[in-house]
Amino acid sequence: MPPIRPRSSKNSTEQEGRLLLAIQAFKNGDISSIALAARTFNVPRTTLRDRLSGRTERCTTRANLQKLTETEEESLQKWILSMDSRGSPPRPSTVREMANLLLEKRGTTPVLSVGEKWPGNREWVTVIECTNAAGWALPPCVIFKGKVFIESWFEGLPEDWRFEVSPNGWTSDEIGLRWLEKLFIPTTSLLR
């Protein structure tokens, strides 16, 4: 469940605009003190001070305790998808090793590493795949354990993949029938 935000997004956007104006007025020398700029533009003095010292807004910073940078995560994601496109999707242990290699290449002391249970608690996931002898394959149907389908789980994945949820993460007659009707039959009938 996402954190409860005390302000509406409209108020947050308005405050962000006032903060930017206060920063600009202070940097241009129109206002001589941080406290006066905060009062003039009705923004928290400490937030204005933090922004002027280089801190970014909280909503754009990464969550605490994330060891990989956004660039490292993107590299890891591209590597996983590249391996998958070549028919060799990596196992979770291999992905963990690759993440540790990325952290090791930073050259920090002590060397950082991801945890033993990274990336997750290993819930059941089933994939329906279809490949022929000529070497072409249909997009996969990935079935996750869950009750509710949440689209944000699948951001960044290929758009032609099909996603389903089931109580145990396994396929069912209904999921198999939907796969046949929505993916297999339409795609293979185009090949005739």
UniProtKB/TrEMBL annotation:
<keyword id="KW-0238">DNA-binding</keyword>
<feature type="domain" description="HTH CENPB-type">
    <location>
        <begin position="60"/>
        <end position="132"/>
    </location>
</feature>
<keyword id="KW-0539">Nucleus</keyword>
<dbReference type="InterPro" id="IPR009057">
    <property type="entry name" value="Homeodomain-like_sf"/>
</dbReference>
<protein>
    <recommendedName>
        <fullName>HTH CENPB-type domain-containing protein</fullName>
    </recommendedName>
</protein>
<dbReference type="InterPro" id="IPR007889">
    <property type="entry name" value="HTH_Psq"/>
</dbReference>
<dbReference type="Pfam" id="PF05225">
    <property type="entry name" value="HTH_psq"/>
</dbReference>
<dbReference type="GO" id="GO:0005634">
    <property type="term" value="C:nucleus"/>
</dbReference>
<dbReference type="GO" id="GO:0003677">
    <property type="term" value="F:DNA binding"/>
</dbReference>
<dbReference type="Pfam" id="PF03221">
    <property type="entry name" value="HTH_Tnp_Tc5"/>
</dbReference>
<dbReference type="InterPro" id="IPR004875">
    <property type="entry name" value="DDE_SF_endonuclease_dom"/>
</dbReference>
<dbReference type="Pfam" id="PF03184">
    <property type="entry name" value="DDE_1"/>
</dbReference>
<dbReference type="InterPro" id="IPR006600">
    <property type="entry name" value="HTH_CenpB_DNA-bd_dom"/>
</dbReference>
